[in-house]
Design a protein that fits this description.
Length: 314
């Protein structure tokens, strides 16, 4: 299951306490180390929120205590938290929002506490007792609600079994489940092709917008896409019907979605001979969309499709 919303607590490390000790020449307690910081970085692995399925408390290491003989305690180790591209973090207290839209981003989200000074540092102080050492400061502690917004640039749509997930796997690093039966995909899958995000959603059927099948609630995942990749199986018995079924459902769900640019992917062309493929393609030409013949068993067709996707300028 793809986790797309989660609440977590992030806690930076506590500063280590300063030492209170005395050597041959009086106070010699060293300083505590600084608490570790927590950083956020961005990953193209859109399943990264699944790391919080069990543990929702993230922390960095505390600073170590100062030692005798003016020895400084070690700083706590920093923690780096990887969140998926498209995450929006809302700070529960300040209501500040951070949107992760760039893979290069690295943010210091919670700062570790400073280490306490050891009693050596207060040697010449008049107000303090010579045994005084600071305890170290607490690290920052914040609660966030994280929502994964769908930033997909491309959306694979089509009837169940049209080959959408198979294509996603060929085009991107995704490992979506593929099955020789309808409704294999139960959740939206996302993959990244050189920084462009492609979404694969469960197949739509006639009546989907009225709640039939699974697909409709996943359409929100592709509401922001710039191009719909409409998958139609080449071996379909009524290919025009397939086209209309999907577009009718899109239009009932959202006219906005239905009016988005589409490219037709005529899938599974390995199942037909070139003449059959050509006549199926001809039936789709009336819809005035670019048509790409693809087969996961024809690497050249996948290469051409990748090129087409990567060259899209929006
Ligand atoms: N011959 C052939 N079979 C394909 C091709 N692409 C996909 N298939 C097969 O078609 C079946 C359905 O593929 P999926 O990728 O699961 O289809 P889907 O559109 O994601 O299906 P749902 O998730 O159920 O909507 C599987 O048995 C695939 O192996 C292709 O290019 N050629
Ligand atoms: Mg699928």
């Amino acid at each position: 299951m793809l986790i797309d919303e989660v609440e977590i607590t992030i806690k930076a490390g506590h500063g280590g306490p300063g030492m209170s000790s005395f050597g041959g020449h009086g106070p010699d307690g060293g300083n505590g180390g600084k608490g570790g910081d927590v950083y956020i970085s961005v990953t193209s692995d859109l399943r990264a929120l699944n790391q919080f399925s069990a543990e929702k408390n993230i922390s960095a290491e505390n600073g170590k205590a100062g030692g005798k003989n003016r020895a400084d305690g070690k700083n706590g180790r920093d923690t780096e938290l990887e969140l998926p591209l498209g995450s929006v973090l809302a700070d529960k207290a300040s209501r500040e929002e951070i949107e992760l839209t760039d893979l290069q981003t690295k943010i210091l989200i919670c700062k570790g506490g400073l280490g306490g000074k050891g009693n050596w540092e207060f040697k010449s102080g008049k107000k303090r007792s010579p045994t005084y050492a600071q305890p170290g400061l607490t690290g920052e502690n914040k609660k966030f609600n994280i929502v994964l917004k769908y930033l997909a640039d491309f959306g694979l749509i089509g009837l169940p079994n049209a080959g959408k997930s198979s294509l996603l796997n060929q085009l991107t690093n995704a490992r979506a489940e593929v099955g020789a039966y309808p409704f294999t995909t139960l959740e939206a899958n996302l993959g990244v092709l050189e920084g462009k995000i492609i979404a694969d959603i469960p197949g739509l059927i006639a009546g989907a917008s009225a709640g039939k099948g699974l697909g409709i609630k996943f359409l929100k995942h592709i509401e922001k896409v710039k191009l719909l990749l409409h998958c139609i199986a080449a071996d379909s018995e009524n290919i025009e019907n397939d086209y209309h079924t999907i577009n009718k459902e899109l239009a009932s769900f959202s006219p906005d979605l239905a009016s988005k640019p589409q490219a037709i992917l005529l899938t599974k062309t390995d199942l037909l001979n070139p003449e059959q493929t050509a006549s199926q393609k001809k039936l789709l030409e009336q819809f005035n969309h670019p048509i790409h013949e693809v087969s996961i068993y024809m690497p050249e067709s996948i290469k051409l499709l990748k090129k087409y996707i990567l060259e899209r300028e929006f």
